[in-house]
């Protein structure tokens, strides 16, 4: 199965959005607990984090795919 470039970019949007959403939620809850203002702090941090996560995923994603390919190819050779 080949994946189109637009599908990969859309997947990176979903992945970076969900990961940044969950990570900022966790890291907002650690110091604040679920106190008043927690959700607003979370959303503020998430809005700032998502674009950064998306751009970084576009850079790191291809490197991780290459690294995974190399590891799997090496593992196949060892079998």
Automatic annotation (TrEMBL):
Statement: the UniProt record of this protein carries the keyword Transmembrane: yes
Transmembrane segments: 45-71
One family name in Pfam for this protein: DUF2798
Record keywords: Membrane, Transmembrane, Transmembrane helix
InterPro entries membership: DUF2798
Transmembrane keyword on record: yes
Superkingdom in the source lineage: Bacteria
Descriptive protein name: DUF2798 domain-containing protein
């Amino acid at each position: 199965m080949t994946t189109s470039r637009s599908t990969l970019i859309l997947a990176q949007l979903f992945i970076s959005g969900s990961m940044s959403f969950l990570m900022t939620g966790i890291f907002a809850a650690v110091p604040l607990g679920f106190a008043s203002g927690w959700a607003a702090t979370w959303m503020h941090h998430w809005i700032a984090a998502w674009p950064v996560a998306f751009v970084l995923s576009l850079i790191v994603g291809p490197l991780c795919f290459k690294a995974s390919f190399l590891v799997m190819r090496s593992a196949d050779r060892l079998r």
